Amino acid sequence: MSGLLIRHAHLIDLSAGIDQIGDVRLEGERISELGTSLSVQGDRLLDADGLCLAPGLVDMHVHLRDPGLTHKEDIESGCEAAAAGGVTSVAAMPNTLPSADSPETIRYILEKASRAKARVLPVAAVTKGLAGKELTDFEALKQAGAVAFSDDGNPVATSYLMSETMKRAAKLQMPVLAHCEDRALTRDGLIHEGEISQKLGVPGVPAAAEDVGTAREIALSLSLGVPVHICHVSTAVSVDMIRAAKKMGAQVTAETCPHYFVLTHEKLLSRDADYRMSPPLRPEKDRRAILEGLRDGTIDAIATDHAPHTAEEKAVFEKAPNGVVGLETSLAAGITFLVENGIMSLPELLYRMSAIPAKILRVPCGALREGGRSDLVLFDPQKSWAVDPAHFHGKSRNSAMKGLQLRGCVQYTFCRGNLVYRR
Ligand code: DOR
Ligand code: ZN
């Protein structure tokens, strides 16, 4: 059988110890051969000419807005954005309309995703309607194809419900993705509570709102002896608590998002709602702690919290919903702010954006190996480009990276062996 032969690529996969020039043969959904100077067997040829070839990225925190909020994004457009960002698998958060709290909605997502340019890993709601009251049917949701549980957007309301969630999910060997926030502290806060919120005269969210949530999940995980994954870590105190928890042997994993290691709350002085998300941008000392957490491995993974909203919704600073898009800029943000700044090597970055999230979600991707999935990204690590949301492939333009000059440019993305993006 002939396939596609990608030649002269810089193959990178930290888990397999691969960091060398080589060739890869794709046959259908699988990598059939990997090596140097592979023979041409009637394959189509792609000369990578030294571009980096890595496992397609796995973004474990994405809002696809489908069903119900498809004016912001839908499964098709969100997966196009993913493909353009080199992302071949996305974990889709359940805060849709209806929320992903039933097997029917999980099946709807998977059915629609079967025609999309990336793989969709549905995350099921912890509570019915994300209302924080009644737990969903975890077994049935797993059966339907959900890969994880979360009430993201909302924290799981009570410690009791979260402890039940962690126990039930652990029995099913499914991860719980925790949005850590004590809403009683957030109140009507819009941005990080501090110098900038005071200057602007807008209500602030204390860092403690996140930290109290992080502390709760760690305490529950430790006392129950079950895993928990902490979403979008943004504060220095949370990084320290996660570091300490890991030292105590807690089965805690964590992710952060590019905006927390690229930007600080000074950006909000512009009163531009494209810099508003939850948790909010923080001061420089928190950004530095996030970098240190990434450097020493306290923070395991990088995800985007891709959260599309329309320009109309984002138009008024105080009224706009929280969230920023991120699928099309995450790799370049990582290369520019982590690799170029010496926080981690390029193979390490790719690992934190593919193999590690795949492992946390227990899905078989994120590796360059014979027999493995033919989900790949080919990118130029040197090429510099300016972020212009007008060129995005997703439906929404609410990027906090707009105007930045970033290094690292996706040239080709393959998913299930198909070319899904070409620059
Ligand atoms: O900024 C955010 N936007 N944070 C969340 O937790 C939810 C998300 C959304 O759904 O828009
Ligand atoms: Zn969240």
What's the mean pLDDT score? 97
Instruction: Profile the largest sheet.
Output: 8 strands, mixed
What name does the CATH topology carry?
Answer: TIM Barrel
- Parts with pLDDT < 50 across at least 5 consecutive residues: none
Question: In CATH, what is the homologous superfamily?
Answer: Metal-dependent hydrolases
Beta-sheet strand percentage? 15-25%
CATH architecture: Alpha-Beta Barrel
Q: Class by helix and strand content? A: alpha/beta
How much is the radius of gyration in Å?
A: 20 Å
Whole-number tally of structural domains = 1
Total DSSP helices:
13
The count of DSSP E runs of length 2 or more, i.e. the number of strands, is 18
* Quaternary organisation of the protein chains: single chain
The CATH class turns out to be Alpha Beta
**Straight-line N-to-C gap:** 28 Å
Helix content, binned percent: 25-40%
Kindly summarize this structure in a few lines.
With 423 residues, the protein is α/β, with parallel strands linked by helices. It is built from 13 helices and 18 strands. Strand 1 (4-13) and strand 2 (18-27) form a beta hairpin.
Question: What does the model show?
Answer:
With 423 residues, the protein is an alpha/beta fold. The protein has one domain: TIM Barrel, CATH 3.20.20.140. Helix content is 29%, strand content 23%. The chain contains 13 helices and 18 strands. It has helices at 75-84, 103-113, 138-144, 159-171, 183-186, 195-200, 207-224, 236-247, 258-262, 284-295, 330-339, 346-352, 355-361, and strands at residues 4-13, 18-27, 30-35, 44-47, 52-55, 57-62, 87-92, 119-124, 148-149, 177-178, 191-192, 204-205, 228-230, 252-256, 301-302, 376-386, 405-415, 418-422. Strands 1, 2, 3, 4, 5, 16, 17 and 18 form an 8-stranded mixed β-sheet that branches. Strands 6-7-8-9 form a 4-stranded parallel β-sheet, sandwiched between helices. It has a 4-stranded parallel β-sheet with strand order 10-13-14-15, with helices on both faces. Strand 7, helix 2 (103-113) and strand 8 form a beta-alpha-beta unit. The mean pLDDT is 97. The structure holds (4S)-2,6-dioxohexahydropyrimidine-4-carboxylic acid and zinc ion. The site of (4S)-2,6-dioxohexahydropyrimidine-4-carboxylic acid (DOR) has 12 residues, from loops.
